[in-house]
Amino acid sequence: MDGDTGSLDASVRRAYRIVGRVQGVGFRWWTSRTAARLGVGGSVRNLRDGSVEVQAVGSVAELDALEAALAAGPRGARVERIEPLAPDATVLDDDFRIE
Which entry of 17, 21, 37, 46 is annotated as an active-site residue? Predict the structure, then answer.
């Protein structure tokens, strides 16, 4: 993705807006657990328009795996599309937070 910089082992930042039936279905909790399992830092939050924003920091392979998981979503969710956003350079990479 365009937000990638550095080698495969270097940390990169990506951000996404997930659109569809993604609020009220445990999407933030599921994203947090999935990111932690993959070793990805960052954050997830609901947006006022009904979408969800994910800020993620990790290796290219970790972020590719997270993006694939986000496209599927948890049971009960219906992901219509994932839109790339400009990554927030202030998002911490030490763990994954629900905001």
Answer: 46
